[in-house]
Design brief:
Helix 1 runs antiparallel to helix 2. The protein has one domain: Gcn5-related N-acetyltransferase (GNAT) (Aminopeptidase), CATH 3.40.630.30. A seven-stranded mixed sheet has the order 1-2-3-4-5-7-6, with helices on both faces. The protein has five helices and seven strands; from the N terminus they run βαααβββαβαββ. The chain is globular. The mean pLDDT is 96. Helices cover 37% and strands 34% of the residues. By secondary structure, it is an alpha+beta fold.
Amino acid sequence: MIVSFPHIETKQQITLLCEMASVIWKEAYRDLLSPAQIAYMLDLFFNPSVVDNQISEEHYVYHFITADGITAGFFGVQPRLKENSLFLSKIYLLQKFRGKGLFGQAMHKIIGIARENGLPVIRLQVNKNNTVAINAYIRSGFYIAGSDVFDIGSGYVMDDYIMEYVISR
């Protein structure tokens, strides 16, 4: 399988990312969040104008994850120079592409991005009840560094673990 990570830049690519996020979230979070919260968070985080602003104003970088030329998922990172870390904001795969080694290859690419930016730590947030994702991150070398509750408005919160991966020298 040939895996690549095309950079997401165009409005059309951003729209595809948001459409893919909707499919993935409705499947992946159906047992963790209410349908109303999923809809709210999709609009909050995966509205094309929000993603476009993240890229143009907040220095986020998004990449598709492709397998043999087929778009299988995506990830988004943000260098946080003041924190000396790379924030792994999003990494998602369509269900039919999970368990095929794509997550590990994407993590290898993300580690490379951190190294290129001279950032020694990758940091992420994950829902405390998302054991599948937590276990995948732990298998990839992340550890739980803390936890926090984030108010995201409309009566919703994100009750997350903060996980970190330390880049080896």
